[in-house]
Known about the structure:
The protein contains eleven helices and twelve strands. By secondary structure, the chain is an alpha/beta fold.
Amino acid sequence: MGGFASIGECMIELSGNEGDQWRMGFAGDTLNTAWYMRALTEKSYPVEYVTAFGEDSFSQKQRVFLTSNGIGIAHSPIIDGLHPGLYAITLNGAERSFTYWRSDAAARRLASDREALEKSLTGRDIIYFSGISIAIILPEHRETFFDVLRECRAAGSRIAFDPNFRHQLWPDRKVAQEIISEAMRIADIALPTFPDEQALFGDKDAGACADRLAALGVKEIVVKDGTEPALVVSGDERTLVPSVVAQAVDTTGAGDSFNGAYLAARLNGLSPVEAARKAHLVAARVVEIRGALAPMETARAAFAD
């Protein structure tokens, strides 16, 4: 089957304009990554977003949005009586804060149908998910989710994981540490952000973060750190890859676009270090545009530099 599958929650995004006017769109961390993967791969290459949808009009708009932009929905279930989660972005300069309404979102049940999940993921080249993906899944479905990922990995898929720790999604720090570490043991590629890892695990620096992840069995690690260089670990090699200077107006999609560009570059045969350089180029352009989803042409132009 091949292709790329990104797993998580497609949310309604409200972004503030002047006064009390708000603009509606669709986004979410793993959706953002799928967007940039779609932008940076051939149109014929399958890019799928694996989630669960409601059956309301907003859920229908989500599905139309995805498919009209070349992102499939695989075998994602449509669940009666449920609806999408929603978040609002408030900007303070280039930094942003989020307010969420997602407790009964359909995506929390994305692993409720094991057969559908297996059909969506089996045979993919790369399967990508995040700490937000596993935080929002109903706790009783997490082991099913992990089991399917293990099966796919054993069958040859590469598993990529960004811990993307958000404390408000977890009941406590210890639970987050345990579940994120369990997910990391399944991963071939880790794409953490250092401040998140420091907050959750107390890592003193990016090197200590990479050491901890390597001890869990991860072979390819990219520790992102905002405008600081990214630490790329591949086997016994460690390389600091400088970021790219940008005039940031909105950092919402920085890490997600980096991940999408990095994985697209790796699919294209670039080394981890070269892939990180490409990813920095894309992320630098994305933060110069408001919103998490920059035009695909913008991402393509940056990737081509």
